[in-house]
TrEMBL record:
Mg(2+) binds at residues 223, 237. The gene is SUCLG2. GTP-specific succinyl-CoA synthetase functions in the citric acid cycle (TCA), coupling the hydrolysis of succinyl-CoA to the synthesis of GTP and thus represents the only step of substrate-level phosphorylation in the TCA. The beta subunit provides nucleotide specificity of the enzyme and binds the substrate succinate, while the binding sites for coenzyme A and phosphate are found in the alpha subunit. This is Succinate--CoA ligase [GDP-forming] subunit beta, mitochondrial. Substrate binds at residues 288, 345-347. GO terms for biological process: succinyl-CoA metabolic process; tricarboxylic acid cycle.
């Protein structure tokens, strides 16, 4: 069957709080029996050199490990161009690593100052005769996981769907049965694998589903799932998204989280159970509920303003969280005004008001503050009296 609906899900998922480096994802795949390239990880040039020698491969690929795309075309602060290098001479790996480790790599997806590279992956380079795309993801329309595949891999899957929708295939997975053998074989055939490779690809597909369940993933995307001249089916690159609600039973996986590259403000917000995403504008948004938060950002933009952030307080917010949220917003040098937009269906507006009052008093607010509180404990939509000294225009 062809796939008309869940392509956007394959690319656009909920915000990922857990960030894994490429080598960490591949390690999880190895543990589930998925075929990946042989590799080692190094955090200093001598270890990188030794890893290259231990591989004893015809060709070696050296990859800088950062949580951003576009590494191949990136530039290091050392002057080295490219975060991915191929070589047939193991002796040069140490020298290349010395120009990567400890230096910042700037790509189209990093901040202007780049991201410091602390580890490199030294892997066996394999030729690819054919590239395909494969993913397992949660699909609301199907009320569970689905497999999505295309014989055209190594490129943006949305582009394939737009230009050649007939090359996108979908298999709905029964969560109680799992991936059936006939489904895996059918998907392998749709991906263009033939002969013994068809069976091999089907086995890889079933193991990827085992991984999907084992780590409580919401998405496992392999692009490309490739075929080598030696007759191997290999997962060359993978992106894994995890269900944050499963952290309590995935402690080992979540312990791998590399927070060093995360936005410090987002990391601090997460400590207080605040959903924060930094944006490029100058109007800070302080809102409860993701829907209202997005609508608030849209309205600001519609009227010519630019939101500085997305901030969802959630329903069970406490006064301390309100105060800490204000600390985060006021610490952003871009912020020139703060808009509070609260609809108190579940949220107690008095808690919000008291938190804001404390923040205004203790943080010595120096930017304009506009507050809209409506709902529980906010009679008739009027602003609580405690806020009046800080809102002379309300």
């Amino acid at each position: 069957p062809r796939m008309p609906t869940c392509l956007s899900c394959a690319r656009v998922s909920s915000r990922r709080w857990l960030n894994l480096q490429e080598y960490q994802s591949k390690k999880l795949m190895q543990e589930s029996g998925v075929t990946v390239q042989r590799f080692y990880v190094a955090d200093n040039p001598p270890d990188a050199l030794q890893a290259a020698k231990r591989l004893n491969a015809k060709e070696i690929v050296l990859k800088a490990q950062i949580l951003a795309g576009g590494r191949g075309k990136g530039v290091f602060s050392s002057g080295l161009k490219g975060g991915v290098h191929l070589t047939k001479d193991p002796s040069v790996v140490g020298e290349l690593a010395s120009k990567m480790l400890g230096y910042s790599l700037t790509t189209k997806q990093t901040p202007k100052e780049g991201v410091e590279v602390k580890t490199v992956m030294v892997a066996e380079a394999l030729d690819i005769t054919r590239e395909t795309y494969f993913a397992i993801l949660m699909d609301r329309a199907c009320n569970g996981p689905v497999m999505v595949g295309s014989p055209q891999g190594g490129m943006d899957i949305e582009e394939v769907a737009d230009k050649s929708p007939e090359l996108i295939f979908k298999e709905v997975i029964d969560i109680f049965e799992g991936v059936r053998d006939d489904q895996a074989l059918r998907m392998a055939a749709n991906l263009g694998f033939k002969g013994p490779l068809k069976r091999q690809a089907a086995d890889q597909i079933m193991r990827l589903y085992d991984l999907f369940l084992k780590v409580d993933a919401t998405q496992v995307e392999v692009n490309p799932l490739g075929e080598t001249p030696e007759g191997q089916v290999v997962c060359f690159d993978a992106k894994i998204s995890f269900d944050d609600n499963a952290e309590f039973r995935q402690k080992a996986v979540f312990a791998l989280d590399d927070m060093s590259e995360s936005d410090p403000t987002e990391t601090e917000a997460a400590k207080w159970d605040l959903k924060y995403i930094g944006l490029d504008g100058n109007i800070a948004c302080f809102v409860n509920g993701a829907g209202l938060a997005m609508a608030t950002c849209d309205i600001i933009d519609l009227h010519g303003g630019k939101p500085a952030n997305f901030l969802d307080l959630g329903g069970g917010v406490k006064e301390k969280q309100v105060y800490e949220a204000f600390k985060l917003l006021t610490a952003d040098p871009k912020v020139e005004a703060i808009l509070v937009n609260i609809f108190g269906g579940i949220v107690n507006c008095a808690i919000i008001a008291n938190g804001i009052t404390k923040a205004c008093r203790e943080l010595e607010l120096k930017v304009p503050l506009v507050v809209r509180l409506e709902g529980g404990y906010c009679t008739g939509g009027a602003t609580p009296t405690a806020l009046h000294p800080y809102l002379p225009s309300v």
